[in-house]
Amino acid sequence: MTLPSSAFLRGTKRPFAVFTSTPSKFFSALFARNSLIPPQAAKQSVFTFWKTLKKRDFISNRVRRGIGIAAMLIGAQAAAAEVPMPQKTIKIDENLQFQVQWISPGSFLMGTPNSEARRDKDEGPMRMVEISNGFYMGIYEVTQKQFETVMGYNPSAFQQDGLAESRSVESLSWLESKEFIRRLNLHRVGHFRLPTEAEWEYACRAGTTSSYYWGEISENWEAYKHGWINSRSHATTHPVGAKPPNPWGLHDMAGNVWEWCEDWYGPYSDEQQTNPTGPKEGKQKVFRGGSFYDFAPSARSGNRHRHTIDKRYTAIGFRVVWEEEIRPADTRKVFKLGGNLSLELQYIPAGKFNMGSHESESGRQNDEGPIHQVTVSKSYYIGRFEITQAQWEKVMGYNPSAFQRKAEASALPVERVTWFEAVEFANKLTALLPGHFRLPTEAEWEYACRAGSSTRYPWGSGSALSEIERYGWFNSRAEAMPHPVGRKLPNDWGLFDMHGNVWEWCLDGPRDYEPIATEDPKGSTDGDYRVIRGGSWFNEPEALRSANRHRHPPDSRQTNNGFRVVWIPE
Fold it and tell me: How far apart are CA 64 and CA 23, in angstroms?
């Protein structure tokens, strides 16, 4: 069959008139001869047509609606070739489980047309968005019981009656939702995260293009059939799942509580996008879906709102996305060093990441760019913690640290070690234990530090000290000394103290970055300097950024210099 292209607009306006008058019929014709168009071909055709229309002055909201319908038809056709919308129950333990719904990949028209009733300006411009990877999304919002099981407390305002356990958790900040997810991921049952704003709207619309996923009717009495909204909610949240689900099986996507998204808030682009994730930095995070406190227009599929990351509000909760991960059987390794001492290492899979920082990143130094793609071609294990004074003394027989008379000194990171001594420590471990120990290369260090992130810090790009001190020790919060390892939050790959406490020696010397993709880069070890990473108790937060680099002579001894090791199995 013939698929539409830019040639469709040439010669006559008759087909275009048919399209603008009955867009759904026009795009339905795409599927008249075949039960399934190859999804990529159909998708590319609609994208090409979309870009052509954008160049014409006569594009209208109705045209945009029609293209949205085409995208949904393509998504539905592609989904038909897969197992239809499976559900899973993710069991963490006997007391905690989550029900999730598979959301197939596809394309949709994100945002709202100018003509949509009660539209806000930040809901446009509309643009085509492709969600290229399927994902599982929570069928329900996270409940008070689930939150309290993981976190040990319940921040909710509505917990006074017998229904509290099944109500949506609320009165929690974006930071608290992230901490909940971090703790969930420590169980290593797949990978939980917040949805991106695009994923949220895609899942909410569930193949629809109307203002609400049930249609255009916005009267409160009609909306009440589908979600808990003001004037019908009795000024309170309600147990999750009490209203009918949307067409893809998700409950409470309209009303009950607003839901935090991963993205920083920012204006929309008018360009076609694939898996958009919002601005790289910002001051407020997006939340979606309306709530019991708001009237029906806030529950529209395209409506957006935002708050600062530490903002608590009785009408904000969240739901999770879950991704199935295939992990090696042995994701952690523990070596006994004698007595009560052990060395814990975390598996780091091979992969790719963007090394360095953007020119716009606050606190950036010139040697952090240009950003370039780095492939870490082989997996490895890296210490979950910095090497402690006790571990050093057990292996080396002496303690060089300046802070060895402090309380809990044995758990403090060793410091005042030269690069040469750190290499010697790794060599002695190799002689004592199976496999090969060494220092991480600078690329391995930043890859492990970022843990899949691309922001200023693994937890985001904000500069609030109250957020940064949750993860690292730095000057104004460290009381002029290092602290026992592992007392701050780990990154998403389970590594502690990658930010602050003590700088960490890397295996290589500094190299000049180049704007080309590279595999397993390593600076020279013949020069006058070696790289140190991570910042320390002596430095302010700018030094703790994932991309920040510093250097010292390999024979340098500093009271804020330590290290961690890499282990390669035999």
Answer: 9
